Amino acid sequence: MTHVNQNTLRLRPVSIRALTLLAVVLSCGTSACTRNTTVQNSNNQNNSTVRKTAANETVNWAEGNLIVDGQTFKLNHAYATMDRDPFSDNKYTIRVLVSEQPISQDIRDDHTALMDMKKEAKNHAMEIDIDEQLKVTWIGLWGLGQVSGLEYPFEPIVFNDQLVEGRLFTAKPETVFDKKWQYDVKVKSSVSVDPYQSFVTASTGRALAEDGGEPGKAYLDYQAAIRTAKGPGDLDRFYSKPVLKDRNANPELKELAMEMEKGSLLEELKIVGGFIAGEKATLSIEGKREGERNLRGKVNLHMEDGQWKIGAQAFRGGD
Which of 78, 224, 250, 310 is deepest in the core (most CB within 10 A)? Predict the structure, then answer.
């Protein structure tokens, strides 16, 4: 059955930046989609594989239609980004954003700017999540809402960490909030990775000291500051620039974010290593939250102005 949430256009864990940097489980994988790996559809009885492209091209092409209440909008542009699951080596999600008008790289890289564009609703667009099993798991319809379910077809030609090509469509007209909609679009898009949302792994960086080194110390200072913070501005100095921009975009949500952070502090918090690549580090965290079992976490830190600043975070229950 299809489920919808009105007026909420979910963003990939960029929302971690926007509110609380709290635990969000990401839908993606790591080494399962490396440069030399083709993706196999485990649900295909013939065990056929989706071919890998060898071309080093950058392309953002789409051709198709989105129809809402009988009005047709041409979808001419496609932009694909990949999320890799920090807790699983074989899970990932590629999100394909298809739009009527072009969307600049600056906008796509700026969570706040992208949300503002959605609110303006001048550009008809969709976001479509496809998992490692080639299943459409979620659709965000700009101006309408979001839809989750596995009944939306995807006919892939290429699907890997460099390129997505294929046909995405609805098998029949759908209804969301009393509006009828359907789409049919062919896409070919290079795949990018958000530098702030991606996590450093053993394959992309080198090991940190067991206590996390300097990034670990910065994270513990941040945790201590949460406990004593009297206002949301008290934590500004700890956040990376994209996180701080999102928090400052909505003062009411910023206040709420601080309260949620205080309520989500981990007990028995322990840093158990991590990896570093250039000016980005990812810490591995273990701990407990009140009323919950053990938690595992990944926390990004970014070197800015000579200091390590907090970026994306993800936590997941463990044994």
Answer: 78
- Report in angstroms the alpha-carbon separations of 109 from 70, 86, 114: 32, 21, 8
Token output for 119: 């609110």
Identity (one letter) of the amino acid at 26?
L
pLDDT for 146 equals: 80
What digits encode the pLDDT tens for the residues 92-103?
999 999 999 999
pLDDT at position 56, please?
A: 59
Tens digits of residue pLDDT in 186-230 = 999 999 988 888 899 998 899 999 999 999 999 999 999 999 999
Mean per-residue pLDDT for 49-64? 67
**CA 294, chain centre distance (Å):** 24
C-alpha distance from residue 96 to each of 4, 108, 186, 198 (Å): 19, 12, 11, 17
> What's the Rg (C-alpha) of the chain?
20
Q: Are 112 and 130 in contact (CB under 8 A)?
A: no
Most confident by average pLDDT, 41-45, 260-264, 314-318: 260-264
| DSSP per-residue codes, 138-181 | EEEETTTEEEE-S-S-EEEEEESSSEEEEEEE-SS-EEETTEEE
Q: How far is CA 3 from the centre of its chain?
A: 20
Q: Which residue has the tokens 């926007």?
A: 18
Q: Max Cα separation, the chain? A: 60
The answer to whether 197 and 312 are in contact (CB under 8 A) is yes
Domains of the chain: 3-193 (no CATH), 206-317 (3.10.450.50)
Q: Write down the pLDDT at residue 53.
A: 42
CA–CA gap between residue 39 and residue 158 (Å, rounded): 9
In sequence order, what are the residues at sequence separation of 6 or more whose Cβ sits closer than 8 angstroms to the Cβ of residue 289?
264, 265, 266, 267, 295
Average pLDDT score over residue span 161-181: 92
How confident is the model over 254-267, as a mean pLDDT?
88
Residue 317, beta-bridge partner list: 295
